Amino acid sequence: MNSSFRVCPTTGLKVHAQADALIKANAVAGTVTLLIGGIAAILVLLTRWQAVHLLSATWFYRVLTIHGMNMLIFFILFFEMAILYFASAVLLNSRVPAPRLAWFSFGLMVLGTVLVEWMMIAGKADVLFTSYVPLRADPLFYLGVILFAVGALLVVGIFFATLVVAKREKTYEGSMPLITFGATTAAIIAVITLGHGAAAYIPTFFWSMGWMNMDPQIYRLVWWGLGHSSQQINVAAMVSVWYLLGALTVGSVVINEKISRTAFVLYVLFISMASAHHLLVDPGMGPAWKVWNTSYAMYLAVLASMIHGFTVPAGIELGQRVRGLTKGLFEWLRKAPWGDPGFSALVFSVVVFGFVGGITGVTFGTEQINIIAHNTLRIPGHFHATVVSGTALAFMGLTYYVIPLVFRKEVAFWPLAKIQPYLFAIGMFIFSICMTFAGTFGVPRRHWDISFAQAPFDIQFSPAVDLLIGIMAIGGLLAALGGGIFILVTVWSVFFGKKLEAGSTRGVPPGILKPPSALPAGDADGGALLASRGTMVLVFVFLAAFVVYYFVNWKLLSFLWKIG
Amino acid sequence: MNTGVQSPKGIWWKPAHKTERLWVIVAFVWCMVLFAMMPLWHIRGGQNPSGIRSRVEPEAFRARTEEFIRTYQVGTEQGIPVVEPPPGSDIYLSASMFSWRPVLRLQKDVQYTLHISSLDVNHGFSLYPLNINFQIVPGYDYGLRVTPTEAGDFRIICNEFCGIGHHLMLGKVVVVDGPTTALNTEAVAEEGVQ
């Protein structure tokens, strides 16, 4: 059996050949769907930018459907499947149990993807990502989603089986690493999510065949159990990747295993909050249901993210301080490897996810404030800061390490790779901020023509909206350039890149070329270094921004008509 | 000490360092504030998405809206009936691909119960330029008690994707200061003639 393993020369981990191959296959599928979603993104952007207004109405909504499905379902889940194999089989030195089933699941996911893409491009599923009934798509669209979800669910099952096998075959000592633990919570949330997906799409498939009726409000309730819970998979996976990138790039420390792991568990327990806040201004639920399910009276999933928002930078700070970067508040940050795309992607992912995505998300997810946010551009402004600048950027940063570690290739066009996270993060930051502010003026999301040229009445948004949308477009194009570079670099490295050799120096991330020195053994807790003073300053700046944004929104709400 | 890729050895369930504990406590207190604001606003605030909610068949809602239009219509605009309901009454607005029906003329500082529902698919009620947004779901009557606090000319944007003509779906609400007069009514009627 040993013959099917290789020992990673960088990390010393034993890597199963099947794990290698499955990670590669999922990463490739993820990149292909990212490319499709990315092209769709540019077309959508150039249409919403009223000065260009590229597509016709029909094609705008069609391409928007393609953009949503590829980005939020296909790209991100293929990538997460790769992360599940990595966090279980690779990190635990284990084999992948039932490799045939693993390939069958991958096949199902590809088949589902192909079906859905075909239906969307053929114009038989112009229902957008949410496919709210009674908008109707071709039954094959729903069937494709179901096949994809079943495939993903099987992979999650294989992930759990790997944990059992690794434990039984004693492939690692002690508790599982934090990153595997985080991936496990992502996998548990994936089960909950895909269960909701089945509960939403199987009846919808039957409905589309004319076999049963659907209640549009119940659909919205169950669908968001898929739609937002899947974003909670992203969060758990992204935070795991944060810890992983911290470890790979600067050897960051887990400050306290108890706190970090408990925070992951909170994501599992408080998952449904996120789903409920899509229904805050819906007619089907009352105020008590809304207030309770938004928060469970405690907002502990928000607490979890605020904890990781502290422990990830604090772990980096401590890791740098024990290695001698102890001067002042921020020497650890100033002398960090900013030229390592793994590190810069990590930092931007944490910052934009927290400051833009997190603050806006929690604010809009407040029962009453949702009145001034629901279905406006504020919502996509929020989730482009979380899923794109947060999750996708973290995954991109990780890819620069996956290329040498798993594909055993040098990263092609290294100078471009180094600036890629900067382009992408700055572009996406401008894009989501401008989108959020444009939404404050009531600009609707998912809308082909906000000049309302053909509508029965006239409407003229404030000139500020034109300006914001213009800047948003520039930010979006900058991010698209960053995304294009990412795809170029990965595809080129994987298919045409130079093999990684012992002496390779070009195109090897610094964290692999010169790995961070080993941490002091034993229970040395770094003593006074644990104070993480720099991080303390940063998190209180974050809290201040949060408090201001939150109460400004209450103030804006109070100016409106009386509604009750 | 270990990184996140290494298995922690031995017992890792240890008390947190005091800075970390401080942040957890501060963050938790903030989370409680986030929660408390919602019930508090129900008591002290003027804007809540509560409403009077009930199920309604699309056909029944269509009939109710048409009855409402027949009773209080004062004119037409762009082919859509203009309705001036008495202060304080129940008023009806139906959403369907791709129009809002009827156009409403309301009085400032008077409370109305605005019933909104959809006759076909999901729609989104978005009052421009105030940015007041509600989800409109077929089969459900959302009865919102609204008090316009300023006079003016408002639009209703549909902000839930409802089909390829989604961007055509624009409605109108006019709020007048003080009791509506015959003069106003005439003005509306003339507009209707155009």
Keywords:
heterodimer; A: 564 residues; mainly alpha; Cytochrome C Oxidase, Chain A; two-stranded antiparallel ribbon; 18 helices; B: 194 residues; alpha+beta; Immunoglobulin-like; seven-stranded mixed beta sheet; five-stranded mixed beta sheet; 28% helix; elongated; disordered C terminus
Overview of the structural elements:
The complex is a heterodimer of chains A (564) and B (194). Chain A is mainly α. Chain A folds into two domains: 16-227, Cytochrome C Oxidase, Chain A (Up-down Bundle), CATH 1.20.210; 268-516 and 527-559, Cytochrome C Oxidase, Chain A, CATH 1.20.210.10. Helices cover 68% and strands 1% of the residues of chain A. By secondary structure, chain B is an alpha+beta fold. Chain B has two domains: 14-48; 52-193, Immunoglobulin-like. Chain B contains three helices and twelve strands. Chain B has helices spanning 18-44, 58-72, 182-193; strands at residues 52-55, 73-77, 80-83, 90-96, 99-101, 103-107, 112-118, 123-128, 132-136, 140-147, 152-158, 170-176. The radius of gyration of chain B is 24 Å and the shape is elongated.
Strand tally of chain B, please?
12
| Annotation field: number of helices of chain A | 18
Supply the CATH architecture of the largest domain in chain A: Up-down Bundle
**Helix and strand sequence of chain B:** HEHEEEEEEEEEEEH
Radius of gyration of chain B: 24 Å
Structural class of chain A: mainly alpha
Biggest β-sheet description of chain B: 7 strands, mixed
CATH first level of the largest domain in chain B: Mainly Beta
Tell me, rounded to a whole number, the average pLDDT of chain A: 94
The outline of chain B comes out as elongated
Average pLDDT over all residues of chain B: 92
Corresponding CATH superfamily of the largest domain in chain B: Cupredoxins -  blue copper proteins
